[in-house]
Design goal:
The complex is a heterodimer of chains A (118) and B (170). Helices cover 76% and strands 0% of the residues of chain A. With 118 residues, chain A is mainly α. Chain A has one domain: Helix Hairpins (Orthogonal Bundle), CATH 1.10.287.3510. Chain A starts with a helix and ends with a helix. Chain B is mainly α. Chain B has two domains: 70 residues, NADH-ubiquinone/plastoquinone oxidoreductase chain 6, subunit NuoJ (Four Helix Bundle (Hemerythrin (Met), subunit A), Up-down Bundle), CATH 1.20.120; 60 residues, no CATH class. Chain B has seven helices and no strands. In chain B, helix 2 packs antiparallel against helix 3.
Chain lengths: 118, 170
């Protein structure tokens, strides 16, 4: 049991990060912290991909050094995902700034009251 | 390193002050990028350090200068039990699949033994003359993906201008 978990500790950390990200998106009332939670969730997924590519004793996929190499494909997918994630964060934070300009608050419960009053 | 990353993520979740949370998140990103280097993914590590720890943190800081930091004496956020229940359930379901996953670092994983991986590693240099296989796949074999990525960044820029009602970058 302990061996099984020790060999897969990266995946365990992935799952815990997904849990923390989910908690932040549901539990934190501040909109900026919800966006941070989304980023934590994303990095959890990245960790899953990069750990899946890792091979004990293999080098990074730079072909001028001697092999064996780890698989380059998950690295490429994650590079794309990081950039897309930043674009997503930028737009989300833009919306947060707009919401603050309109309603003067970032707390979801206050926001709900303000909208109910209108 | 994994423990440090987890601790930073937890600190990000429970700190009440948004600025503190952002700083914890920056430390978290930096820790993650060091993990990428350990896992033999230096390209991803560089991007994460520059983009995750750098650009994202700047974006968050810009946001809180334009909005507010919640005031208050308490250091920690009150715990939201609905959120705890949902995330514990999610983690429980995911952990139940842990035994079915291949061990990290074994050479027998589906990723390591895949034909696609072998094809890229065997042919990338002859076909593209780029020694870094990650660059070769990113810019050559999956070039259309990268074009799509550029379109996403462009769309995000336009989206931001629309949302913030600005006519030009300033």
């Amino acid at each position: 049991m302990i061996d099984l978990v020790a060999a897969r500790v990266h995946y365990l950390v992935t799952f815990l990060l997904l849990g923390i990200g989910t908690y932040m998106m549901i539990g934190n009332r501040n909109l900026v912290k919800k966006v941070i939670g989304m980023n934590v969730f994303q990095t959890g997924i990245f960790l899953f991909f990069i750990s899946a590519a890792y091979i004990e004793g293999a080098g990074s996929p730079v072909l001028s050094s001697p092999g064996p190499y780890v698989s380059p494909l998950p690295h490429v997918l994650i590079l794309t995902a990081i950039v897309v994630g930043v674009s997503l964060t930028a737009v989300a934070l833009g919306l947060v700034v707009r919401i603050y300009d309109e309603y003067g608050t970032l707390e979801t419960d206050v926001l709900r009251e303000v909208r109910a009053d209108e | 390193m994994l423990a440090l990353v987890l601790a930073c993520a937890l600190a990000t979740a429970v700190l009440r002050d948004v600025l503190g949370s952002i700083i914890a998140f920056a430390a978290y990103s930096l820790g993650v990028s060091i993990i990428w280097v350990f896992l033999r993914a230096p390209d991803v590590g560089l991007t994460e350090a520059a983009v995750g720890a750098g650009v994202t943190t700047v974006l968050f800081l810009l946001t809180i200068t334009k909005t507010v930091r919640p005031a208050g004496e308490k250091i920690l956020e009150p715990i939201d039990w609905t959120g705890v229940v949902v995330s514990v359930l999610l983690v429980g379901v995911l952990v139940s699949t842990l035994g079915a996953l291949p061990a990290v670092g074994s050479a027998e994983t589906p990723v390591a033994t895949s034909e696609v991986t072998d094809y890229y590693l065997d042919n990338a240099y002859e076909e593209t003359e780029v020694k870094n296989a990650v660059t070769a796949v990113l810019a050559s074999y999956r070039g259309f993906d990268t074009l799509g990525e550029a379109v996403v960044v462009f769309a995000a820029g336009i989206g931001l201008l629309v949302v913030l009602q600005k006519e030009e970058f300033a």
